[in-house]
From TrEMBL:
<dbReference type="InterPro" id="IPR001252">
    <property type="entry name" value="Malate_DH_AS"/>
</dbReference>
<feature type="domain" description="Lactate/malate dehydrogenase C-terminal">
    <location>
        <begin position="174"/>
        <end position="337"/>
    </location>
</feature>
<dbReference type="InterPro" id="IPR001236">
    <property type="entry name" value="Lactate/malate_DH_N"/>
</dbReference>
<dbReference type="InterPro" id="IPR001557">
    <property type="entry name" value="L-lactate/malate_DH"/>
</dbReference>
<keyword id="KW-0520">NAD</keyword>
<dbReference type="GO" id="GO:0005739">
    <property type="term" value="C:mitochondrion"/>
</dbReference>
<feature type="binding site">
    <location>
        <position position="253"/>
    </location>
    <ligand>
        <name>NAD(+)</name>
    </ligand>
</feature>
<feature type="binding site">
    <location>
        <position position="180"/>
    </location>
    <ligand>
        <name>substrate</name>
    </ligand>
</feature>
<feature type="active site" description="Proton acceptor">
    <location>
        <position position="204"/>
    </location>
</feature>
<dbReference type="InterPro" id="IPR015955">
    <property type="entry name" value="Lactate_DH/Glyco_Ohase_4_C"/>
</dbReference>
<feature type="binding site">
    <location>
        <position position="121"/>
    </location>
    <ligand>
        <name>NAD(+)</name>
    </ligand>
</feature>
<feature type="binding site">
    <location>
        <position position="146"/>
    </location>
    <ligand>
        <name>substrate</name>
    </ligand>
</feature>
<comment type="similarity">
    <text>Belongs to the LDH/MDH superfamily. MDH type 1 family.</text>
</comment>
<dbReference type="GO" id="GO:0006108">
    <property type="term" value="P:malate metabolic process"/>
</dbReference>
<keyword id="KW-0560">Oxidoreductase</keyword>
<feature type="binding site">
    <location>
        <position position="108"/>
    </location>
    <ligand>
        <name>substrate</name>
    </ligand>
</feature>
<feature type="binding site">
    <location>
        <position position="60"/>
    </location>
    <ligand>
        <name>NAD(+)</name>
    </ligand>
</feature>
């Protein structure tokens, strides 16, 4: 038993050292909206392990106080409080938050696309965005709820309607696409995934996810390339099918959300050169009517500091980008139209 306890402590220490570089000088309040769900629970756990977080506010329509009580026993300094459903509870959870993560919504089931989730999740995100626009208009908003290609524009339109929209502080979390791309290429090459870094641009749904292997100096051809691209674009389906209708990618998505939050915290606390892929309002393809796009973004104290261009791509990657842009334009317009018709 003593050995098991020592091993557990060693693992916790390793998680803290590897995932988060502590900064005791500046700490912050982080709110998770949808903390009782499949993504929200492990996300809350990972944020509790982050020494940069001083206060963790967990909100959901049910279950958040229980999650808060559970993770509050973890031996890190942050204070955790759970909030049940209600306008006043939500306002209290959000007040003073510097980062708000929204994983709230219903998960995908077998055969369901992210767009099938649209109506339910659009309504949920709209209401949470309204509350955030009132309670913490200057917070960094991290949208995880699918379909991200549409829920980010919905959030933007809500903030615009309240007169508090800041494009530098609204992010769609696409980190999981990069995590998958690196993991999957390591399986093809039999390498350590920690040493692989594949640039992924576009959006966060099917054909809008475009891995750029050429920028990592990796060359795949024929069926091997097609299989890799398909797996990166539709990797979430593997999880949905494997869980037999009981859920979608929750644990890996929580890890990706926590990683992005950590990068944002690093940048907010003065670290330079922090770059993460994220879906933001972008000028890169604005001339084609695509106003939001995921690419590598340099983060700073005020959120988005620099949006990196896509860079040189192969002819095949350009074909993937062309399909991506067409679909993205439709997804973005769908979100903007919906929220204007359903304010």
């Amino acid at each position: 038993m003593f050995a098991a306890r020592k091993a557990s402590q060693s693992v916790l220490g390793a998680v803290n050292r590897r995932a988060f570089s502590a900064s005791a000088a500046q700490l912050t309040k982080v709110a998770v909206l949808g903390a009782g769900g499949g993504i929200g629970q492990p996300l809350s756990l990972l944020l509790k392990l982050n020494p940069r977080v001083s206060e963790l506010a967990l909100y959901d329509i049910k279950g958040a106080p229980g999650v808060a009580a559970d993770v509050s026993h973890i031996n890190t300094k942050s204070v955790v409080k759970g909030y049940d459903a209600g306008a006043e509870s939500l306002k209290e959870a959000l007040t003073g938050a510097e980062i708000v993560l929204i994983p709230a919504g219903v998960p995908r089931k077998p055969g369901m696309t992210r767009d099938d989730l649209f109506n339910t999740n659009a309504s949920i995100v709209r209401e949470l965005a309204k509350a955030a626009a009132e309670a913490c208009p200057n917070a960094n908003m991290l949208i995880i709820s699918n379909p991200v290609n549409s829920t980010v524009p919905i959030t933007a339109e809500v903030f615009k309607s309240k007169g508090v929209y800041n494009p530098k502080r609204l992010f769609g979390v696409t980190t999981l696409d990069v995590v998958r791309a690196s993991r999957f290429i390591s399986q093809v090459k039999s390498t350590d995934p920690a040493n692989e870094s594949v640039t992924v641009v576009g959006g966060h749904s099917g054909a809008t996810i475009v891995p750029l292997l050429s920028q990592s100096g990796i060359e795949l051809k024929g069926e091997e390339l097609a299989a890799y691209i398909k797996r990166v674009q539709f990797g979430g389906d593997e999880v949905v099918q494997a869980k037999g209708g009981a859920g979608s990618a929750t644990l890996s998505m929580a890890m990706a959300g926590a990683r992005f939050a950590e990068s944002l915290l690093k940048a907010a606390q003065g670290e330079k050169g922090v770059i993460e892929p994220t879906f933001v309002e972008s000028p890169l393809y604005k001339d084609q009517g695509v106003t939001y796009f995921a690419s590598n973004v340099e983060l700073g104290k005020d959120g988005v500091e620099k949006i990196h261009p896509v860079g040189k791509v192969t002819a095949h990657e350009q074909e993937l980008l062309d399909v991506c842009l067409k679909d993205l334009k439709t997804n973005i317009e769908k979100g903007e139209k919906w929220v204007k018709e359903n304010p």
